[in-house]
Amino acid sequence: MERDEPRHRVLSASARPSALAPFRIRNYRFQWPADLLTSWAFEMETLILGWYVLVETGSVLLLTVFASLGYVGTLVAPVFGVIGDRIGHRDLLAMMRAAYATLAATLMILALTGHLTPPCVFLIAALMGIVRPSDLGVRGALVATIMPHEQLIGAISLSRTTMDTARIAGALSGAGLFASLGIGPAYVAIVCLYAVATVLTLCVVAPHGRAKAHEAVEAVLRRSPLRDLKEGISYVWTSPRMRAAIWIAFLANLTAYPLTNGLLPYAAREIYLTNQSGLGYLSASFAVGSLAGSIALSLVGSVRVARLMIGATIVWYATLLVFAQMQTVPSAMACLMLAGFSQSLCMISLAVILMRAASEQFRGRVMGVRMMVIYGLPLGLLAAGGLIDLVGFAAMGTLYAVAGLAMMLVIILHWRADLWHAHAPANAR
User: What confidence score (pLDDT) does residue 405 get?
Assistant: First the structure.
C-alpha cells in the first residue's frame, strides 16, 4: 500500500474521520476523477442517444430496446470479475475505458460526416453494452483494494458521488450541447472525457509489491477461468447476506430503475410535453437527490447498513408509486429527487455489505455477480415498453412499484435474521 496510508491507520478510535479522508490516499485521488469523467460521459451518451432514438423512430418500444442494449453485457459481468482478479482491476478498468473512447469516437465521426442512423446507434450501443455494465463493479473492487477497511463506507459513498454529480452535470451539459450544437460536437466532448479518464486510471498504482503481484498472477493464471467463475458464483450463493443483497439488487433493476432510467425520455416527451432541456432537468433532479444521499452517508460515522438498505428501498418504491401519478415537470422533479436520495442509500449500503463480506481474492468475482443481476433492467424495460402501449405510463409505473414493494417484503421476511437483527454481521458498525 502507499506510504501515506499507515498514517491513516493510526487514527484514534475516538476521532471521527473527515468525510474527505479517502482523498489522503494517492490512488484514490486519481481514481475518483477518472470515475467522475467516465460517469459524466455515460450520462451524456444516455441522454443524447435516448432522445435521438425517440425522435428519429417515434417508438417507445424501440426506445426501450435501445436502453436495454446498454445492459447486454450483464450476463458476462462475472467474466470481467474473473479477468479483474487475474490481471488487476486497474488494468482492466483502463482497457474498458479505452474501449469506450473508441466506440464514442466512431459515433462522433458518423455524426460529423452526416452518416449517423438509428441502426448505427443500435449497433454501437450493443457493443458498448457488452463492456459498460461491468464498469461499476470493477471500480468498486478497485476501491476496496486500495482503501483501508475502516474507510470503506466513506470511500464507496464518495465514489458514488461521481455518478450523482455526473448525472447532474452530464445531463444538463449533454442536453445543452445537443440542443445548441448538435450531436456531433456533443460527441467531441464525450470522446475527450473518456480519453482523460483512461489516462487518470492508468495513474493508479497497484497496491502490492511487483514481485508479490507477479507471483499471485502466475498462480491464478494456472487455474481454469471457468473454475474461477463457478467459485465466484458459489461463494456468493453460500453467504446468506450476500445472496439477499444480490436479490435486492436484481429486484431494484427489474422494477425500480426502468422508471427513472430508460423511460425518462418517453415521460419527458409524451407525459410532461417538454424538450431535451426538460429531460435534462428531470434526470438531474434524480441525481441531486442521489448526490445528497451519498454525501449524507459519507458524513455518518457508523450505521447498521442492512437496516438502512431495507428502509431506503421501501421509501424508494413508495416514492416511485407517487411519481407514476405525476402530470407536471415540477412535481415529477420533486418525486425524482426523493427517489434518488433513497436509491443512493440503498445502493451504497448494498455495495458495502458485499465488499465487507467478500475476501480480497473474491472481490472481483463478487462484484461481477452483482453486475450480472443488472440484467433485470433490460428485462424490466422491455416489459415496460409493451405495458405502456397496453395500459399507459401511470398504470405501468404503479404496477412496477407495487410489485417491487411486495417482493421486497418477501425478501425481508425470508432473510430477517441476516438483514434486520441488530447483531447480524451485515449490521456491524
Answer: 94
The 10 Å Cβ neighbour count of residue 413 is 10
**Where residue 242 falls among pLDDT bands split at 50, 70, 90?**
confident
CATH superfamily of 18-427: MFS general substrate transporter like domains (1.20.1250.20)
Of residues 173 and 400, the one with the higher pLDDT is: 400
List C-alpha distances in Å: 70 to 25, 279, 372: 33, 19, 13
Mean pLDDT in the chain? Answer: 80
pLDDT tens, position by position, 340-370: 999 989 988 888 888 777 776 676 677 777 7
How many CB atoms sit inside 10 A of residue 15's CB?
Answer: 9
In this predicted model, which residue has the larger pLDDT, 19 or 113?
113
The grid coordinates listed for 402 are 407495487
The reported pLDDT for the residue numbered 419 is 79
| Whole-angstrom distance, CA of residue 3 vs CA of residue 259 | 45
Give the three cell numbers for residue 42: 455515460
